[in-house]
Amino acid sequence: DALNRANAFRGFGDASRAFDNNEFGAAIDLFAEANNLHNILNDPLLKRFMRRKLNVINTLRREIDRLNGVIDSQMEVMRNLANEFAKLGDDLTEDVQLEPINIKSALANYDKALRLNVDCVAALVGKAKLLGRLDEPECAIELLKKAVEVDPCNSEAFYQLGLLKLRINDYPGA
Q1: CA–CA separation, 143 vs 114, rounded Å?
Q2: pLDDT exceeds cutoff 80 at 64
Q3: Which long-range contacts (C-beta less than 8 Å, at least 24 apart) are formed by 46-53?
Q4: Rounded distance, CA 95 to CA 52, Å?
Q5: Whole-number Å distance between alpha carbons of 102 and 88
Q6: What is the DSSP letter of 98?
Q7: pLDDT tens readout for residues 82-128
Q8: Radius of gyration of the chain (CA)
Q9: What are the C-alpha distances in Å from 127 to residues 23, 102, 117?
Q10: Nearest CA to 85 among 109, 67, 114?
Q11: Which residues, 6+ apart, have CB-to-CB distance to 163 below 8 Å?
Q12: Cβ pair 27, 12 in contact under 8 A
């Protein structure tokens, strides 16, 4: 009995170390083997110890939830910044006669917006409209296809896509 008890406590120690190393499956297996040698599940002191150990999971779950909240708020900031850069690009392209400096600045703003949020529909559509005006319809069409994929309800993207398809004589695609 003493030998079984000693082997059991060694197994409980191994299970505890496995748990500390986040090897939960191994920890359960080692604990079950050790408990078969010497049942400790009725010992109140050991139950408290196990509860304390298992509380690590709850602590980690709370930390994961907290970090997910931080990520969500940062993503929202990125989306807002992307929309602001897209608006800056739109403001630079409002003139009928585009100045070269405005073209360069507008493209830079659209690119910044898309680096912040690759799915920023406003930036995709704005850059596509500018590229269409610069006689680069193929690039513009790809951007508009992405915009439609991201937001299938965006009428501006569909409209601009249709206009560009007409310009390149793709009447069925328009």
Answers
A1: 11
A2: yes
A3: 53/16, 53/19
A4: 67
A5: 10
A6: -
A7: 999 999 999 999 887 888 899 999 999 999 999 999 999 999 999 99
A8: 30
A9: 50, 13, 14
A10: 109
A11: 132, 174
A12: no
Contact between residue 12 and residue 39 where contact means Cβ atoms under 8 Å apart: no
| Residues of the chain above pLDDT 90, percent | 77
Give the residue among 125, 126, 134 at the shortest CA–CA distance from 167.
134
Indicate left, alpha or beta for 151 from its phi (over 0: left) and psi (-120 to 50: alpha): beta
Type of residue found at 164: L
Q: What does the buried/exposed string (b/e) look like for 141-161 if buried means 16 or more CB atoms within 10 Å of the residue's CB?
A: bebbebbbeebeebebbeebb
Sequence-separated (6 or more) residues with CB below 8 Å from residue 58: none
Place of tokens 């298992």: 54
Q: Are 130 and 107 in contact (CB under 8 A)?
A: yes
Residue 88 is classified by DSSP as H
Question: Which of helix, strand or coil describes residue 173?
Answer: coil
Reported as a single tens digit per residue, the pLDDT across 8-46 is 999 999 999 999 998 999 999 999 999 999 898 888 888
As a whole number, mean pLDDT of residues 41-68 equals 91
Among 151, 169, 147, 172, smallest CA distance to 160 is for 147
Nearest CA to 160 out of 131, 150, 172 is that of 131
